[in-house]
Amino acid sequence: MNPGIAAVARAELRTGIRALLVLGLIAGLVGGLLLGAAVVADRTATAYPRLVERTGLDDARAYLPADLPEVTSSFAGLPGVTQSWTAYAWIAQIDGPTLQYTSVIAGPQRPKDLVDPVIVAGRVPRVEAADELLLGEPLAAAAGLHVGDRITLRMLTFRQIARFASGFGEPDGATRRMTVVGIGRMPSWSGALGDSLATPAFAAQNAGAAGGRSGFARLAYTGDAAHDAALRSQFLTALSAKYTGMPRPLIVGQYVPEVPVFPSTDPDPAVAAAERVLGFGLWGFALVVALGGLAVVGQGLLRLHLRGGPGQRVENALGMSATERAGARVLAATSGAAVAAVVAGAITLAAGVVEPLGSQARFEPDPGFDPRWDIVVVGAVAVFVVFLGMAAATAALAGRGASVRTVPVRHRPQRVGLRWPSLFVGLRLALRGRLETGGTIGVPAVVTALGIAVTVAGIVASTMLGASLQRLVDTPARYGYTSDLTIADAREPDMQALAADPRVAGLTVVQTGRVTLGEDRARQIDAYAHVARKGDVPVSLVTGRLPAASGEVAVGARVAVREQLALGDTVDVTSSDGRQARLTVTGVIVPQPERGAPLGEGLLMTPAQLGELFGSPLASAHVLAAPGEAGALYAELAKRLEVHPPAVPAEIDTLAGLLRLPEILALLLAGIAVAGLVHILVGAIRRHTRDAAVLSVLGATPAQIRATLGVLAGTTVLPGVVIGVLLGLGAGRLLWWQVASQTGVAPDVMVPVWPIALILPAVLVGALVLGALPAIRLAKAPVAVSLRAT
After folding, report:
1. Neighbours of 91 (CB within 10 A)
2. Which pLDDT score, from 0 to 100, does residue 447 have?
3. What does R_g of the chain's alpha carbons equal in angstroms?
4. What's the rounded Cα separation, in Å, for the pair 188 and 117?
5. Could you tell me the pTM of the whole model?
6. Which terminus of the chain is more solvent-facing, meaning fewer CB atoms within 10 Å of its CB: N or C?
């Protein structure tokens, strides 16, 4: 090594070791926060796909009618199937104070890596135990069941299930006393998977009373999107062909989907919405921390190296090149870089204790500490290298003045400056950074404005997102829930009694049938028609109007986005009875989901149109209670009817778990903004110590100097704030549109006007206040002392 470089490095360490260590600590904290955010963001974003992999989530899933055994037996041989499991499915009534039904599936021993829930409590039921049950997490939470509880299942016969809408009396199937031995986690517990899993022994004991079959298949996916889509289409076509020439099954098509679903490629829509919110929060926080950290560390290193400016001039005179001078300071900075790497690595390692944020924690297959050694090692090395790179860059900038150069200065008349000198000089200092050639180097105004803009944009977007989330969660009508009670099966005698009940303010019978869209009929959704029996139970309308005649339809918000349907467009539907219709879209709605349908799905048409498509649609009812009567109505009806109080949909529950995140993010960004403003303004005013002294020599009064520095402070932050507010409004609107479209609710964003409107004056006042003390002190400083400042 060059002895001169080593000698200069030792000298830099003697004079600046404490500053380097402090800057290394700050850089380590910033790097650790960035890397820790990356660890948490990755764990949060991958929770769902990791659970999919761990549980062996099936690629294709279908209901198979119990009265068409030929269809069931052909399931394993459908195109593309490499592995399959066919289970029996039962509907059972759970004995208890209220009427409650559940679905149970069981079959022969399933392949180990297909439909294998992660056990979060208890254990897996023993194969030979017919009385042991594994509950899905949703059922366990809804029914308040735990490991060790005993429940009684009164199973319905196949014929009773087929008469569900018209009534069947008491369950005629077997009564089974079951023990909950485990609670399992899956990406979703719904549809053909049911609510719980029993054992092969249970299946052998009760196979004759099963209400149907559930088929699960692994397809020969290659990862090529076009190939996999074609494979799904072939599977769908082949399964549909198996029904050709067969008698119409009693259940499939009316009660359950007639077409298969593809769970591994059609994830829970709530997952995507939550990931967007969490991703925005984490990466927005990381971006602001990175910008703020780079500014603080960069300016700290720059000031450190500027203090050694006379030394660099001596080194230049002794023959050291600019590269050698910068290299010596980089060598000295390795002490700070080492501290930064160690601190960043430790914080990144500690971030492994943080589980997925918000509702995504319900998908975590491996709770507990999860160290990410790859990010720890690579991140620590990256922090080390970045710190040294910043040291090299700032040393090179500080060394540009080692050789004295004469730069011609063009003098122009400044008429504005003659009338308002403080305004003119303050603007010049803010935008050009100096009054005289060879002044102190600072952070460019564009960089400062960009940093402030990003921070303010993050605060505005976070505020808008938080306000929109809060309004959605607090307003059930915005996600379609406009009634107090839902009755699963609306029978005429019950409807007549409810219509005459003075405790009922509104009663609507909802007729339902399943339809498929388009020519390929690849997706089956519910079609609704509302028949008002008493009062008014409104429908949540996003845009347009409700259908008023046959041939018109209002589509769910998620359907409109997925199928790219707008007002005036036409959509072809085919009912499960095989009847077809072409309908014109008159509105977009958020229908109240029936039978566990995803939020924002479904079509709403007139009763006459639904009657043309279905011979005997299913019927449920929405009940709007008189003020204060909902509790009494539920307690009475739940003893004899399957009635449900309003429940927060999974999609909304997912977003509700994120309500605090935008607030926390906005507060963190505000704290970073305050710290950044203090650093920027104090640094800017200190950089202009010599300029203030020159102004004093030229006759400026202390008041004029304070005014000049006030203009400097305001001009430094004003462009960034204005740009940041505009960017934040756009980013907040775009982010909420993405969240709303994924969730299936209205996309109109909530703009909290007053909090956003107060940002501009608050930041300006804050800038003036934060810059006041150093400005006053600078204005009072002796001129001789200020002129000697570097």
Report:
1. 24
2. 63
3. 34
4. 10
5. 0.70
6. N
